[in-house]
From TrEMBL:
This is Transcription initiation factor IIB. GO terms for biological process: transcription preinitiation complex assembly. It comes from the Archaea. It comes from Staphylothermus marinus. SUPFAM superfamilies: Cyclin-like, Zinc beta-ribbon.
Length: 295
């Protein structure tokens, strides 16, 4: 049909529009559907009764990157053939992990377990899996070392993507030996340097929202804490000071000023720093910003 030489039989309008998505001609004046034509777009539905094969997406979180996880569908398979298919499926599960890939599969399995513990996003898991794969390929590490490397890769992935996570809180949550963790982290850091990857610079503001949420404080406390951090930066109080300690002190001071008081110990436990660190940063802010606190 040529829409230029065709008119609507209902309103005699020449405003004929072709909808390429639906494959129909529509009158632009009265909206009548005039004719359906062959749709030349992509076929989005499958009318087959069998599912020939299904596969997961490409991912670093599996030792074969998801490519070898293909399985045959069971729709349309006769009953007598299902027993044979089940036997092939069992054999496939045994041979899908090669001898040289067993160490990678074990390390990634540990990494996936710890990722669920820390509830990190998928993009963090992908980066951590990539770093861990580079660290353990061709090696013969024991389970304890793989565990430390898996945790170190998650921590480094958080640093690369700018996700705030205190190292002390990280170690405490999973009950790690600090010396073993830092040793594994140095190895992961070497991998990062070899790959020319860079971790994002930390800012105290990135910790504020997490601390406020854990303590159940209001949004006004978060806003005031960010302002205090900004003022601290302007007068140089942040130089040489840990970001997490400065953020915790700002939240503590804001909670006092807005009458939503939390103790130093409560704030310290929420972020994994000592109450002494909070007390020192708090004293610096109060003395240098001319703030008077009435207890």
């Amino acid at each position: 049909m040529n829409s230029d030489s065709y008119c609507c039989p209902y309103c005699n309008s020449n405003e004929i529009i072709y909808d390429s998505y639906s494959g129909i001609y529509v009158c632009g004046k009265c909206g009548s559907v005039l004719e359906r034509v062959v749709f030349y777009g992509l076929e989005t539905r499958s009318f087959e009764q069998t599912l020939p094969r299904t596969s997961g997406s490409y991912t670093n979180r599996v030792h074969d990157r998801g490519i070898g996880s293909t399985e045959l569908g069971t729709l349309g398979i006769p009953y007598r053939s299902k027993r044979k298919w089940s036997e092939l499926s069992r054999v496939q599960k045994v041979i899908r992990v090669g001898r040289d890939q067993k160490i990678v599969e074990k390390a990634l399995r540990l990494m996936n377990q710890y990722s669920k513990t820390f509830e990190v996003p998928n993009y963090i898991e992908e980066t951590a899996a990539y770093l861990l794969r580079k660290a353990v390929e061709g090696k013969n590490y024991k389970t304890k070392t793989l565990r430390n490397l898996a945790l170190a890769s998650i921590y480094m992935a958080c640093k690369i993507h700018g996700l705030p996570m205190s190292s002390k809180q990280f170690i405490k949550k999973i009950d790690l030996q600090p010396s073993s963790f830092w040793k594994a982290l140095r190895e992961i850091n070497d991998i990062v340097n070899q790959l020319n990857m860079r971790s994002r610079k930390e800012y105290p503001e990135s910790y504020v929202a997490s601390i406020v949420n854990k303590l159940g404080l209001s949004h006004n406390v978060e806003i005031l804490a960010n302002r205090l951090i900004d003022n601290s930066r302007k007068i140089g109080l942040n130089i040489g000071k840990p970001c997490v300690g400065l953020a915790a002190a700002a939240v503590y001071l804001s909670s006092i000023l807005l009458n939503e008081r939390k103790t130093q110990l409560q704030v310290a436990e929420s972020v994994g720093v000592s109450d002494v660190s909070i007390r020192n940063r708090y004293s610096d802010m109060v003395s240098n910003m001319d703030i008077t606190i009435y207890m």
